[in-house]
Design goal:
Blueprint lengths: L1 E8 L9 E9 L4 E8 L8 H7 L3 H4 L5 H12 L3 E4 L2 H14 L8 E3 H8 L8 H7 L10 H24 L2 H4 L12 H5 L6 E6 L5 E7 L2 H10 L4 H9 L2 E6 L3 H15 L2 H8 L4 E7 L5 E7 L8 E3 L2 H15 L16 H4 L13 H14 L7 E6 L5 E8 L2 E9 H4 L3 H6 L2 E2 L4 H14 L2 E4 L1
Parallel strand pairs: 1-4, 4-5
Antiparallel strand pairs: 1-2, 2-3, 6-7, 6-8, 9-10, 9-11, 12-13, 12-16, 13-14, 14-15
């Protein structure tokens, strides 16, 4: 049984936007047996460009039910059904987000008609719903409205079933072929009930030893990928050893990455060691020479000092450093890449200003060298990253003080209300290293989370 669904929203991000319309057609494999279509009051403004696309404006949703008013009916209607949509991640993640805000964990098996179409109808110029339906002579009565798009998806799904029903039923989430040949002690029901939320997960062998630690935005989906992976000898070997699974929900993808890094270093699992052994072997370090110039050098990482950044090999480090020299007009000799009693080679071809022989002022050279150091430092030295919590009532916090990662924690968002002292008190201390600093910097750059400067 399938629940074929389409939604319209106020924007593209489930984290920040809301549903404005939902259409659900219950399909038994032969015909539609039930349906539910309604506008939803998103309790926020609908942007003009969304209204132009969908035709749904603020006035239309003013008297429509809010999501919590239809939430129970949607749960009952989709219970035991497979959630089907065109680009299913978009629709599913929005619905799941709406329920998360209500404190409910919405979980359904999923099927994507985009992925199925690519597999069963190869060679199409486009797999967007509009163009695919046009090529297959499927009429869409109401494009970019939930009912019209959902009904078109029903017709597309019927065509896909007629082409190869067995291929659709072979989907790992449906047939559970991915759980074939697993360890006899593994409880399959535990796998089926894994949450679809961010967190860190653990695989154990039959001696209760941790053999692998991973992280994901979707624990359930990622673990299923492990059990479905037969592409390498290592993947198959690990899968056959998994006798138990556990997890820690983090709510925040950032905290999942930070916690995973710390847990791997602490437990050193068998199947994490090989992939981490050669990573971050060498580091880029800086210091002042006797003349006051900032020098850079590459050497093996050690526990006593943090590098500016790390490399998997000496060769990679040198290659990257040559790039930094060109970018910041630094001296090869002061970067340890040119051995000479006199000037470096770049000075001879006028690509170095002569710091190597004292011709360039210390202040002038160090100003450029500091820019390279700043490249690997936090923009602010004292701040808190505020992110998603493990439930609707809490938020997470990651603390950086004096450019050093302190740790993370959770707080009641109603009580804290950006109170720095209360938020800081929730922080659990973790080890600082360049890997976690890189994780934080990258996450901030890509996700633009809420940051409190302190």
């Amino acid at each position: 049984m399938y629940a074929i669904i389409d939604i319209e929203t106020t924007g593209g991000s489930p984290k920040n936007e809301k549903i404005t319309e939902i259409a659900i057609y219950i399909y038994d494999g032969k015909k539609i047996i039930d349906e539910f279509i309604t506008l939803i009051n998103p309790e926020r403004n609908i942007p003009y460009y969304i209204t132009r696309l969908t035709g749904i404006d603020n006035e239309m949703v003013l008297r429509a039910p809010k999501f919590y008013e239809v939430a129970k009916h949607i749960i009952e209607l989709t219970e035991g059904k497979i959630f089907v949509a065109h680009n299913v991640s978009f629709d599913y993640n929005f619905v799941k987000s709406e329920y998360k805000q209500l404190g409910y964990d919405f979980n359904r098996d999923k099927l994507c008609t985009v992925q199925l179409s690519r597999k069963l109808i190869p060679g199409q110029k486009s797999y967007s719903l509009g163009k695919l339906c046009n090529d297959l002579d499927i009429a869409i009565n109401g494009r970019h409205r939930a009912a019209g798009d959902a009904l078109a998806t029903v017709k597309l799904f019927e065509i896909l079933l007629s082409i190869n029903k067995d291929e659709i039923l072979k989907n790992p989430k449906l047939s559970e072929n991915y759980l074939a040949d697993v360890h006899p002690k593994l409880e399959l029901e535990k796998i089926r009930k894994l949450p679809e939320v961010p967190g860190v997960y653990y695989f154990y062998n039959d001696k209760c030893e941790i053999i692998y630690i991973g992280k994901s935005k979707n624990i359930h989906q990622r673990i299923i990928q492990h059990f479905s992976n037969n592409k390498s000898k290592k993947a198959i070997e690990m899968k056959q050893q998994i006798a138990d699974v556990s997890y820690t929900v983090t709510g925040s993808e950032l905290i999942a990455m930070l916690f995973e890094s710390d847990e791997i270093k602490k437990h050193k699992p068998l199947f994490n060691r090989a992939q981490r052994r050669s990573v971050f072997t060498y580091g880029l370090y800086s210091g002042l020479d006797k003349n006051g110039y900032i020098n850079f050098f590459i050497e093996k990482n050690n526990k006593d000092s943090l590098p500016l950044t790390s490399f998997s090999s000496l060769a990679e480090g040198k290659k990257r450093l040559y790039g930094y020299i060109a970018e910041y007009i630094l001296c090869q000799k002061l970067c340890g890449l040119y051995k000479s009693n006199g000037a470096c080679f770049h000075y001879e071809i006028m690509e170095c200003y002569g710091a190597c022989i004292g011709k360039e002022e210390v202040k002038s050279y160090n100003k450029r060298a500091q820019k390279l150091i700043d490249k690997f430092s936090f923009e602010k030295r004292n701040f808190i990253v505020i992110d998603e919590g493990r439930n609707a009532e809490e938020q997470s916090a990651v603390l950086v003080e004096n450019g050093k990662y302190i740790g993370f924690g959770y707080f009641d968002k109603k009580l804290a209300n950006n109170n720095i002292e209360l938020i800081s008190n929730c922080i659990k201390v973790f080890n600082d290293n360049k890997e976690v600093q890189q994780i934080i910097r990258t996450y901030i750059r890509l996700n633009k989370p809420n940051i409190i400067n302190i």
